[in-house]
Amino acid sequence: MTPPSRITRRTLLAGAAAAAAVPVLAAPSAAAPLRRGDWTSVRYRGLCADDPGGRDALAAPHRGFRYEMSYNAIDLTSPWANEQNHSPDVEETLRTLRAEYGEGAHVTQLYFYLWDFATTALPGSALANIERVLAGLRRARTTAVLRFAYDDGVREGRRYTVQHIQAHLRQLAPLVGRYSDVVTVWQAGFLGAWGEWHGSYYDHEDHPDAVTEIMRGLVAALPPMVQTQVRYAEKRRLVGDPQTRDRIGYHNDYITLGEGLWDYYVPGNPGWPDYLAVSPHHPVDGEMPWDKGQSADPYAWSEVIDPIAAARRLQTLRFDTLSMVHNATVTIPGWRTARLTERQVAAAGLPAATGYFRRRDGSTVERTAFEYLRDHLGYRIEARQARWRRSGAGLDVELDVANTGFAAPKRPRPVRFVLLDRSGRVASGGGADTDWRTWLPSGRAEIDGEDRTVPVTRVRATLPAPRHPGPYRLGLLVTDEGRDGRYGVRLANAGVPVADGVNVLGEVAFGRR
């Protein structure tokens, strides 16, 4: 039998309040004890617009819209004039970002500029500063698209070498490993302005040997469940080691759907086949350019990017995260007011979560483009039907799930079924026979001939019978290995209460043996 976990009555109650879910610690109803061989079946429906929380951002980690924050590692100031109100207190900074850009993001791009230490070892004070920020993100239950860089485009470029980068990676690896639960992806960074791999002093980003050595060092530093990203397909191709290359996804830092000179993620670009091939299984992040209300730079972009066209591109390239800070005075407001219908989304070959464009009475409802993108970037997991029965081994469980998001999950996570007793403790549990990264989304919108049907995956497990008879709640827990449910995945279903990451699927009663 699985021993009791850290999921206690207190943490369950706290989780239930945070998720605005139906309380799960009320006394279970007096269900009849299960008889051997008899299946109990329960069907579930997706969240409708008028369900409690039906228009809120779903708590599903490592996906969706993101904020952005930047710190100089030497003192946790920001190098940017428009971020001087950002505080070393991360929770305060997140409140500032929510006030400025709106609610709805559980991820942030996180830059650390190492300009002061480009050719020296990182002092303990700088490492402590970095840890302070990561610890703040953990407290805030926010994850990071992490990037380290030397050059910020403001101060003079630094003369760092491959050896300097490798030495810094060795210093940073233990720290990032300790906070792997809050690292969505660790981007390649380091080279060039803003860590975007252009304009470094020695042009290391153009030399295969240098690129291979840097990326080998970064991949060696990555926590096991975390991947990395580069901006350009041609840079990924420079990595001569196939095993290293297989840990690398992409980030597009200039999304304009091909209208701008620096958006290479378009059909016909030499890198397009690579982006199509890599994005289904590797993390993909992106941002639009700053708009002219945010920046005087010549590359600023001040035309609203069409939301349907953007959704098709983001879905085709299996994007997981997208900045809501960039183009925040032009395109983002346009998306917040643009209305989408179920018919428009279907005609564009895009997925929609079950009931997403409906009210509980079945009538149709419009959503904003912002809502739609917020809720479908990355994965969105729905339960369709569960079945369970008593068996000689304990409790057999089957659960049908569907992924109505843009992308498959990219980060490995164990999938467990658990039985919660009256106090909310785990009385029994068992791993499911699944890799949740195989919970695939529908076919890609911009690729002719791909199936637009959302696949359904059946997940199975057998749980040992609990030691004591009585009522229990059957739940699903999908969280990082060795972690509690703080970053547990919430199912996109109505009537499925959530507490401390456990999705409660139904009630089970065990009689005396």
Structure in a nutshell:
The protein contains twelve helices and 22 strands.
The CATH superfamily of the largest domain bears the name: Glycosidases
Tally of alpha and pi helices: 12
Shape: globular
Sheet-strand content, in percent, reads 15-25%
CATH class of the largest domain: Alpha Beta
The level of helicity is 10-25%
- Tally of distinct domains: 2
Rg estimate, integer Å: 24 Å
Mean pLDDT: 91
Distance between the termini: 15 Å
Poorly predicted runs:
1-30
What is the total tally of β strands? 22
Largest sheet: 9 strands, parallel
Indicate the CATH topology of the largest domain.
TIM Barrel
Could you say which structural class the secondary elements and strand pairing correspond to? alpha/beta
Care to describe what's here?
This protein has 513 residues and is of the alpha/beta class. The chain is 23% helix and 23% strand. It has two domains: 9-57 and 379-510, no CATH class; 64-337, Glycosidases (TIM Barrel, Alpha-Beta Barrel), CATH 3.20.20.80. The protein contains twelve helices and 22 strands. The strands form five sheets. Strands 3, 4, 5, 6, 7, 8, 9, 10 and 11 form a nine-stranded parallel sheet that branches. A five-stranded antiparallel sheet has the order 17-16-19-22-21. Strands 1-14-15-18 form a four-stranded antiparallel sheet, with no helix packed on it. Helix 9 (307-316) links the parallel strand 10 (284-286) and strand 11 (321-323). Helix 4 runs parallel beside helix 5 (208-221). The chain starts with 8 loop residues before the first helix and ends with a strand.
